[in-house]
């Protein structure tokens, strides 16, 4: 190991600004299976939520920040990893059944991709696998 290069261990968590904690929580629970792990309070008010995925997805922070959420709508910050194409196809079918509009799974620059899935604030989500 090169001592001049810092040691890292993947993505610890993702944090998204949202306009409404309840609607974002509901969407990430119903569409992707996330579960509430922790409420973050700012005095008496809930300022954010920490969500946990039961099958290995990254921890997800939803932070009440309407101005930033609106400004970031339409931008894809990251890609959620999937184990294989079959998992992406199953997710695409689930999202379609729940009324979500997306272009389906297709070849990406590396592996397969399910792009252009939008959460309640218009954050563009991408799901990808390498094989």
The radius of gyration is 16 Å
Question: In the CATH scheme, what's the topology name?
Answer: 2,3-Dihydroxybiphenyl 1,2-Dioxygenase, domain 1
Question: How many domain modules?
Answer: 1
Derived structural class = alpha/beta
Q: What is the average per-residue confidence, as pLDDT, rounded to a whole number?
A: 94
The dominant shape is globular
CATH superfamily (homologous) name: 2,3-Dihydroxybiphenyl 1,2-Dioxygenase, domain 1
Major sheet attributes: 4 strands, mixed
Q: Describe the strand arrangement of the main beta sheet, using strand numbers.
A: 1-4-3-2
- Strand content is 35-45%
Helix content: 10-25%
Supply the CATH architecture.
Roll
DSSP strand count: 8
Number of DSSP helical runs:
3
Question: Describe it for me?
Answer:
This protein has 131 residues and is an alpha/beta fold. It has a single domain, classed as 2,3-Dihydroxybiphenyl 1,2-Dioxygenase, domain 1, CATH 3.10.180.10. The protein has helices spanning 21-32, 66-72, 85-97; strands spanning 13-18, 35-42, 45-52, 59-64, 79-81, 106-107, 112-118, 124-129. The strands form two sheets. Strands 1-4-3-2 form a four-stranded mixed beta sheet. A hairpin with a 2-residue loop joins strand 2 and strand 3. The chain is globular and about 45 Å long. It starts with 12 loop residues before the first strand and ends with a strand.
